[in-house]
């Protein structure tokens, strides 16, 4: 059952926001991926053999510590939430507990057993992105349902070019690190079509990191290639494709300042995990996962979160390293780590010995 749920999750993941449904009484959507990952967690808990392996994993303890701090921060702030706010925040807390099950489940199986599904999942993600860019380039109508409006940008099934760009940048760098340079080229083209400057920067820093590890100066050609593609691709009128746009920069700075201000006011345990929407009475986000943790779970939560990430990055292969570093660096400019499809990808790649993919 665990294997079946993991494979189903892999094939649902690329559909992103397309498989969302609303629940009466909830102010946020539930996704089919949430449901499958929840069942995946339950299957691990009920399988004694699998649970023994989960308990012996060195990541379980730091994960529990951070989740407990997040829970405590929310419980301590329940009285300050607006009506219905506790349900909204509890849902996100449940996600914090269940999504790491992707890591524990993937580690139960031989890489060959899930390799085909992982590759197929990513290919489907790319196909959906290409389909959107070619046939639905004008996504400005998304503003009517609470998303940012985008015009002639590859937003994919995530409805967001930044999160889509983070995945594309990370996977392109994985292929480059494995020596599959030709495979990385179409991914660089797709990355260029997102017009996501944060993702461009992550890709550039990833190349610099690989340059330091591999000492191959020919890697610079990938950066040159990205610049050329960005220069050549069509750029119809619109702020979204203007690489010198400033509105999003100032918007991020404002959100960072708000995050710091909230942290200073409640530095120990914060305002409660994912309660920011309720504190302001409207949709509000901090475009930085680390400031988000600091503001909502305080200094204690931030320390345990950094400890968890430190444990995650120990003893993993270069391809895993480069992918996870991209996501974590991207989280400086967006709340990427806690975006459920990014979070899913983080835990999945952490469990995969990507060196096994080099032969294919």
From TrEMBL:
InterPro entries xrefs: O-antigen_ligase-rel_domated, WaaL-like
Entry keyword Cell inner membrane: no
Xref: Pfam families: Wzy_C
Topology versus the membrane: Multi-pass membrane protein
Main subcellular location of this protein, as a coarse class: membrane
Residues annotated as transmembrane: 30-47, 88-106, 118-136, 163-183, 190-211, 217-234, 290-310, 322-350
Domain O-antigen ligase-related residues, every copy: 184-306
Protein location: Membrane
Keyword vocabulary terms for this entry: Membrane, Transmembrane, Transmembrane helix
Domain of life: Bacteria
One cellular component term from this protein's GO annotations in UniProt: membrane
PANTHER family listed in its UniProt record: LIPOPOLYSACCHARIDE BIOSYNTHESIS PROTEIN PA4999-RELATED, TEICHURONIC ACID BIOSYNTHESIS PROTEIN TUAE
Protein name per Swiss-Prot or TrEMBL: O-antigen ligase-related domain-containing protein
Provenance organism: Candidatus Collierbacteria bacterium CG_4_9_14_3_um_filter_43_16
């Amino acid at each position: 059952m665990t294997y079946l749920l993991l494979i189903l999750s892999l094939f649902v993941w690329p559909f992103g926001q397309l498989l969302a449904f609303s629940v009466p009484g909830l102010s946020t959507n539930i996704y089919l991926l949430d449901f499958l990952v929840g069942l995946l967690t339950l299957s691990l808990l009920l399988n004694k053999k699998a649970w023994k392996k989960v308990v012996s994993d060195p990541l379980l303890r730091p994960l529990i510590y951070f989740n407990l701090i997040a829970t405590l921060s929310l419980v301590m702030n329940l009285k300050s939430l607006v009506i219905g706010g506790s349900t909204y925040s509890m849902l996100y807390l449940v996600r914090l507990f269940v999504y790491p099950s992707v890591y524990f489940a993937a580690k139960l199986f031989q890489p060959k057993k899930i390799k085909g599904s992982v590759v197929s999942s990513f290919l489907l993600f790319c196909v959906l992105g290409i389909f959107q860019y070619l046939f639905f380039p004008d996504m400005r109508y998304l503003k009517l349902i609470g998303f940012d409006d985008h015009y002639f940008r590859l937003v994919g099934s995530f409805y967001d070019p930044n999160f889509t760009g983070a995945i594309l940048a990370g996977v392109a760098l994985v292929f480059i690190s494995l020596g599959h340079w030709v495979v990385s080229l179409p991914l660089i083209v797709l990355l260029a079509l997102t017009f996501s400057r944060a993702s461009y920067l992550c890709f550039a820093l990833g190349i610099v990191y690989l340059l330091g590890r591999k000492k191959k100066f020919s890697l610079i050609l990938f950066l040159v290639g990205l610049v050329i593609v960005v220069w050549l691709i069509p750029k119809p009128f619109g702020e979204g494709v203007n690489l010198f746009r400033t509105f999003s920069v100032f918007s991020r700075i404002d959100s960072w300042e708000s995050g710091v201000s909230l942290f200073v006011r409640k530095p120990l345990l914060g305002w409660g995990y994912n309660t920011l929407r309720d504190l302001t009475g409207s949709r509000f986000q901090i475009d930085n996962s680390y400031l988000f943790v600091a503001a909502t779970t305080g200094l204690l939560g931030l320390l345990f979160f950094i400890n968890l990430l430190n444990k995650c990055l120990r003893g993993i292969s270069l391809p895993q390293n480069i992918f996870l570093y991209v996501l974590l660096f991207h989280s400086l400019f967006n709340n990427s780590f806690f975006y459920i499809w990014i979070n899913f990808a983080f835990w999945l790649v952490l469990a995969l010995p990507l060196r096994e993919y080099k032969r294919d």
